[in-house]
Amino acid sequence: MKPITAAQTRKEESRKRRRAAERWQRYIQDLRRRQQMQAESDRRRKWLLLLLLWALESKPAQLFFPSPDPAPPPTTPKRSAARKSEIKAAVETLSDYDRHYLYDHRPRRGEEHLEVYDGLTWNDIIAYNRIHRPHLFPAFRPIPGMPKRYADEPVNVWTLFDHMSSDYHRPDAIKALKLIVDSRAHDWIDACATEVGDLTYKDLRRQCKRRTPAMTLHEFPRAATWWRESVRREEEEKKRTVKETSDDAPKLPGVD
Fold first, then answer.
1. Per-residue confidence at 222, pLDDT binned at 50, 70, 90?
2. What is the mean pLDDT of the chain?
3. CA 183 – CA 220 distance, rounded (Å)
4. What is the pTM of this model?
5. Which residues are bridge partners to 120 per DSSP?
6. Dihedral of CA 7/9/11/14: which sign?
7. Which residues partner with 117 through β-bridges?
8. pLDDT band at 94; cut points 50, 70, 90
């Protein structure tokens, strides 16, 4: 067996490097050829798609493949110029969080004419429910003794809070409030109305205003109970002070 010389080793390594370079060159050329073929295929596909769209838009194609025209967007009816008070009342005052918390799923102001479901608007759904679901619209029952200002419609406790800020409307608002609030809170309401001690009519709103009218009405008996307890503690404190003062006072001579 002949020994392998250094020249043969270098020659073998050179042949291996040359073959590896040739294989790499063929791989690069094949990759470039595939990319060119893919680009050519994409270009042809785009031209065919453009030609198809142009054919469908032509008049002969419309006879066999008519495209429905989209419905025009709903137009808001024009309204006459309103006063500043009406414009201010039309502004949406509830945020999306408040509407979700209060379970207020009514349409926003000015959107009653829009379609809600299956071609029906909000007004159509209300009219349908009034006929087939009358239990959703209980009849209004006037409260005996209610002031004339609030006798024709349900009273909202928040509206009464707003009317209390007026000296002219405050007596009727206080009277209406006592008719819709639990009788356990009437003495506290009278104390706030007559401003007994440190109480004022503002305490009614400050202590009882909550997230919903129902929660607000539920808060009145609790606030009245807390007020009665504070009054009882003040009276006991006064009696205790008077008793301690009388015991510490100097006694007259001859009196045990």
1. very high
2. 80
3. 10
4. 0.48
5. 117
6. negative
7. 120
8. low
- For residues 222 and 30, give the distance between their C-alpha atoms in angstroms, rounded to a whole number: 86
Coil, strand or helix: which one is 63? Answer: helix
Hunting for tokens 């909550």 — which residue is that?
210
Tell me the CA distances in angstroms from 87 to 4, 33, 62, 79, one per residue in order: 104, 70, 49, 11
CA distance 154 to 141: 8
Tokens of 166: 């007026």
Are 154 and 139 within 8 A, CB to CB?
no
Report pLDDT digits (tens) over 189-217.
999 999 888 889 999 999 999 988 889 99
Residue 47 in contact with residue 39, Cβ under 8 Å?
Answer: no
Distances from the Cα of 15 to the Cα of 21, 24, 237, angstroms = 10, 14, 112
CB 164 within 8 A of CB 187: no
What distance lies between CA 2 and its chain's CA centroid?
94
Amino acid identity for residue 78 in this structure: K
Q: In this model, does residue 87 exceed pLDDT 80?
A: no
Burial class (CB in 10 A: 0-12, 13-18, 19+), 13: exposed
pLDDT at 173 over 80: yes
